[in-house]
Each structure stands twice: as structure tokens, then as C-alpha cells.
Amino acid sequence: MAASHLTALVSLLPPCLLALLLLRLATVLDPDPDAAAPRVKAAAPLPLRFRHDGAFKILQVADMHFGNGAATRCRDVAPDGGGARCSDLNTTRFLRRVIEAERPDLIAFTGDNIFGGSATDAAESLLRAISPAMEYKVPWAAILGNHDQESTMTREELMTFMSLMDYSVSQVNPPGFLVHGFGNYHIGVHGPFGSELVNTSLLNLYFLDSGDREVVNRVKTYGWIKESQLVWLRATSLELQKTLLAPALAFFHIPIPEVRGLWYSGFKGQYQEGVACSSVNSGVLGTLVSMGDVKAVLLGHDHLNDFCGNLNGIWFCYGGGFGYHAYGRPHWPRRARVIYSELKKGQRSWMEVESIQTWKLLDDEKLSKIDEQVLWRRSTDDSDHNILSRPGA
Asked: What is its main location (predicted)?
């Protein structure tokens, strides 16, 4: 009877807690002083917050498709781009260049971080892929794409592993909610130290698992964001807006069907391949519009698209292909997207977010900066209604 009770208890432990318990157990069972001690995660400073100059910069890294490092060849690279010498190490070099040039406050890895079919060991590939973020001690968040789980770890194991890595602010799923998938979570970016809003989130970041592959009516299609995820998203947004009507950004990998229509309505950037989305429209756009706080959605998945287009007042922006083992196009440089938010300066202190801008960086000799645009700017009407909920307010 005691053994069955123990089995039931262990099955209820969250994967990350169980992993920590196993590490602790190893030290008890092996008292050898020369044995390796469990390693403690190097944590990012939380909460994330705007810098003293009132800015917060996010680097979006989409579709690294990392494999086995130097042994993994590049795809769709011209002979003068490295040829046989080109490998995953080119992806790592690009990430280091961008981190050094932009000094981001957060790196958002938006799926297909590793390419499962080419990754012999998923954990090792992830460690190599994310290593520049950890080396430079930059907080980072990640979601999954449709290829990450094709190696040696499940989607749940991948998100658990990433949540335990150095400087990661990734989460497996939100506490208190039963949601579909793994990697649905919220991160708030607070006001700078010394400001009146130091304890308030001024920019909210929503991360969502858009799935991998599904079968609908016996036809294969891509995954989609499910209703349980949208319920959590709506509830989280509503709760956050009780304190401050702060702008928000959403990050997920697979685009929604409405993005296809941007071909006809206009966009900024390159629209070079068909939008590969699910055949199921689960109402993501309607949910985001009704919430009112999301100003832009950052996507991955289609490597040859790097455009931004507006749907019902919300910008949908591709990151563009980042990784060299991902498909691309010869003489079309790999690229990254930067999202830059600035606060409004008050008479005595920094106030709410005033603007959100974006641009892309190309992996060329000059690390060229292209397609700068404003995604959102606070209007006078927004400021009049953006009041903190205080007693008597």
C-alpha cells in the first residue's frame, strides 16, 4: 500500500521539481566529496524592467534550425557565402554579432530553435543553439515550433529543459490554468528603478504554443492555438488591465490564416513564399482584437517572409529566417528582428510606454539595418484613459 501511495505522489510532481529532487537524491546516495555537485541555474534578474534611459529592446530570433554544430551543413547558401565550410557555427556567429551590436534586454526565440531531424541529441543541440544568450548573460524566452520535438525530447521535456537553463525566463505553462500545449506564459516588463512605476508592468509579453502537426478530416495540417489557450490569454489580459492599460506583444511560431490576406492589403518587407498555416481558424485574431492590449504579433515558420502587415489594428510581423541550417535563398542574407519600446518622460519620472518600433538586421558585412517602422505610438486619448487603479482614483 505504501509503495502505491509513493508512486501516485511522484506522478503528481511537476517535471522541473522532480528533476531537482533527483539531483538532490544523487548527492545523498553518493557522498563522495569528489563527486560533481548539482549545478544551480544562473537566474535572470526578475522582474524584467525598462532601462534607466526608458528603453527596452527585444531581439527576435526565428527558426535557428540548429543541428549538431560544425557537423551540420548550411542550406541555400551561395558558394561565396562559405560553401562547404558553412555550418551551424555561422548561426552562432550571427547571434553573437547581433547581441554585441544591439545589447538586447531580452532575446525571444520563436520556435524551430533546433531542427529535430538533424539533431542527434536535443538537449545538446539546445545548449549549443542558446549558448550565446547564456554567455552574454542576456535574459531569454523561448517557444516551440513544429520541428523542435523531432529529435530525442518531447515538447513538454523541451520546455521544461529550457525553463531550467541559465538566464531563461521561459515557463512550461501558467499556474492555475489547464491549457493546451507547452510554452504558454506571460512576462511583464516593469518600470525602471527609481521611477514611480517601478512595481508596475508597463509592457506585457504573451508567449503561446502554436503546436506542430495535426490531422483534420484525415488531412495533414499545421497546428493552431486552441480555445483553452485563448481562455487563459483573455483572462490574463483582463487581470493585467485592471492595474494599467499597458500595451502588449504576442509571440508564437505558426501564423494564423488571416496573414495570407496581407498579400492584397499591404505590407512592409518581403513576402516571398506562401503563408504555411493551419486549415483551422480558431479565432485568434478576434480574441486579440477584443483584448485591446496587443499591438503586434511576432511570428516565425516561413523563413523567406520578413514582412509586417496590419490586421484590424494589430501588426503581424515575421522574424525572417535566422539559422543557416534552415531553408533560405542564396544571396538573401539571414536576418533578425528587433523590437524597441520607449517610455514617455514625465516631469519627475518615466511614465507609460510611448512608442514601439521595429527593424531588421542582416547578416552581412555591415550588419545592415533595414525596414524601420513604428508599430504603435500612444495617442493623447490613450494617455487620458491610462490611469492606475488606486483607491479613490
From this structure: secreted
C-alpha distance across the termini of the chain, in Å: 58
Query: pLDDT category, 350, cuts 50, 70, 90?
Result: very high
List the beta bridge partners of residue 106: 58
Spatial CB neighbours of 118, under 8 Å, sequence gap ≥ 6: 65, 67, 68, 72, 325
Structure letter (DSSP) for residue 84 = G
Distance CA 189, CA 195 (A): 13
- State mean pLDDT over 152-177: 96
**Count of C-beta atoms within a 10 Å radius of residue 289:** 13
Contact 298, 337 (CB under 8 A): yes
Q: Which CATH number fits domain 55-377: 3.90.1150.10, 3.30.460.80, 3.40.190.170, 3.60.21.10?
A: 3.60.21.10
pLDDT for res 381: 47
Q: How far is CA 122 from CA 16, 68, 128, in A?
A: 17, 9, 10
47 prior amide bond cis, ω within 30: yes
**Distance (Å, whole) CA 262 – CA 149:** 30
Grid coordinates of 358:
521595429
Cα–Cα distance, 293 to 250 (Å, whole number)? 10
Question: Are 144 and 62 in contact, with CB atoms under 8 Å apart?
Answer: no
pLDDT of residue 40: 86
- Domain limits, the chain: 55-377
The pLDDT of residue 79 is above 90? no
